[in-house]
Every structure is written in structure tokens, then in C-alpha cells.
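I'll show a sample.
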Amino acid sequence: MNSAASLVAESAELPQACTFDADLASDAHKAEDYFAETASRLRELGSPAERGDAARGRAQWLKAQAQAVREAFLRRHIAAIYDLLTDGMTKEQRVPELLYAAAERFPGLVPARATIDAERALRRQSAKEGHEIDQGLFIAHLLAEPRCGLHLVHVMLRPKREALERLDAFVRSGVVDLGRVRLERRGRVGQVELTNPDFLNAEDDAAAAALETAVDLVLLDDQIEVGVLRGGLLQHPKYQGRRVFNAGINLTHVYYGQISFAEFILDRELGLLNKLYRGHWRTDTYNGEFEDLHEKPWLAAVESFAIGGGCQLLCCMDRVIAEPGSYFNLPASKEGFIPGSANLRLPRLVGIQKARHGIFFEQKFEAGTPDGSLICDEVVARDEMDEAIQRNAKQMVAAGMTSTVSNRRALRVGQEPLDVYRRYMATYSRQQAFCIYDQALISNLERSWKPEQRRF
């Protein structure tokens, strides 16, 4: 008996296969029964942490079959599902809100919030069943549908409620402390500083959410013309009194299951990074010929390094300045997942060959070198950084905001039309969901990061 047949035999009969050929309500009922039966079979195998090799193999087989059924259901009904959840696209819901609304309306299709919270409480990525994969599949099929996907992309470009609630106070004071992030208006510049000193200014759920709120405020404040990203000061023994731009995703939090697929991985890409790149959607038109967005130019001031997610941010910038000795890299081979939208944007900066070198072979792009100059526009002495920020910001809008924004938009539309971005994010959502639960990711972290030796 071959291995696949053996798995089937050992796990008894699989749930009755589903075919979807009716309306949404009828097919949803069949799907719900199928997913409930699959969940029951998985519970019989014990928790993921307790399973032996045979039980793990049976569980993987059951989940693979359920994922195939789930994708068949989504392929047929995703447009109708989205219309139902959004009242015909009149109700705007961000990715997490949409996913949890879908969980209530279609049990078993995607995990409920309580399920996600219970898995997070296990404090081990390897101890989870992998329900977030179903979230990735749902968003992937949604983004792959042109009408619904484009609408969701635009919804994620709306200002967050947290930013709108803080706007009046920020306009009056010019300063806001968001915990992991501090925003200050300096003349016509809005400087956003990432301040997560316990983890070398790495990003986690809270930091990414705070960064997006700060970016919203920069875009909303009419007194600000240019946004600046910068890392805050550290008291780390190796970086005492120095700034670090961004250490990327908090890998310790990844290992311990504290990075959310919906609230971090998808929210960050479709929200934070795309707002930096495109700005805010402020109209009701989402399918027109023009990117009718409210945007501003962005400058990154890199000190020490921009690793992983930090380098992803640089791919969204209009200008990058950096201190001598700083570097930028995407150590995806050490981590095991896709470095966000960098696979879409980095090749336009450095070329496809060097992008592959960076993603697969951990090449560093060092400021002031020929390769580093493909990402970094100017190298600035550390004690001259504040002056350089103001000088560069002034030059970026020297022709006036209308000209600056118009040229920025024209350059972007020529390189990355919204439909190209939508299709990329559909693939990203699906593949990243599988990556984040791949055993190789856990093994990579244990080998190269040694998270159990680090402070949580």
C-alpha cells in the first residue's frame, strides 16, 4: 500500500467529499457539515503537541483534504460571500473584521476569534493546529476576484478609527505617543519613530498597529507635507545611545506563536505598507482608471540597519538616507517565509538577480557601496542626520505638493498598477499562510535564531 493510501486507511474514512454546484446557502450547509466532521476527526487525534508521527501524518492528510474542499467552495462563492458580508460593498471591513464576520456567518470556513485566541495562548507556533492557514486561503481567493479584491484593497487604505480619534489632539500638540511608536511634527515634516527598545526596534502586532496609526496621522494632518520614518534610541549594550531603524519581524514572537496572521501579516501589508506607498482612499470610487488617493512623499532615515521588514519599508520610500556603516537585508532563507511585498518591489530597485541574492543568499546591501546605492540615495554622517532630513524633505516638495504628488503617482502607476498589486497580494496571502506553519520555519528559527535562549 502506498503512503497516501496508508494514511487514508489508518484514519478510517475521510468525511464525505463535497461537490459544490448549488446556490451559496445550499453549498454552505454542505461545507459546514464537512468542516465539522473534519474538526471532530482532528480532535480524536489529540492536540498537535501530543501527536506521534502517525497521528501527525493523519492530521496533515485530513487538513489537506479540508483545504481542498475549502478552496473549491471559495472558488465558486467568494464574490457572493463578500457581497453578503459587506452588504453589497456598502459596509467597509478591514481584514480581521471581515474574517471574524465570515467565521460567524459560515462556521468552519475560517476560524472564530476564540479559536485564534486559544491557539495564541499555547505560546508555541509549533503547537498550533494551523487554523490561520484558512484565513490566508479566504483572503487569497477574495483578492483574486477582481471586483471584490480591488474593493478590499481600497478599504484597507482608509484611515483607522484610532487615527481619526487622535487627530484633533495631534493637530493641536504636534506630538503623539502610541507606545511602540512616537510621532512628532517638525515644521512641515512628520517624523515617525519606532520605539521597541527591548527588541532592537523589531516589529510585533502592537508595533505594526501603532506604525499604521502614525502613518495615518501624517497623511491626515494638513500641516505636514513629508513623512519620515526613523528608528528610536536604544539602551542596548551593543547600541548604547544609538538609533536602530528596524530589526524586522520579532522572530522570538514568531516562535512563541505571538505574531498574528490577520492582525500583523495581512494588516501590515495591505494597511501600513500600502498606505506608505499609495496613501489614503478618500473617495467612494474604487474601480476607476485613476488612483484617486491622498498621498504624501516619504523619506527613511536609516541608522545601524534595516533588516527584513525594515528593508521592506525602504522599498516603499521616495528617498532613503543612511549613516555610514549601515546596511539593509532580507534574511528570508534564515526565517522561512516571504518578505512581504519586497518580492514585488525590490527587483525594481536592484534588479531581479540581486533581489534573488538578497532573498535566497542573504546578501547585505551596505550603504555607500554600489549595490547599496541602488536602495540608499545618500550617505549622511550620524551627527548630520537631523539636518539632512530637513534638507531632503524640503527638496522633495520644492516644486510644490501638486507636482510632487502627481509625479509620485505617475511613477508608481507605471511600475505597480493596483491590479498588479492585488494579484500579487492574492498569491502572497495564500503562500505566506503555508510558510508560517511549515515545520522548516520552526527548524530554521531553532537553528539560526535560538529563540529559547532569548528574552520573551
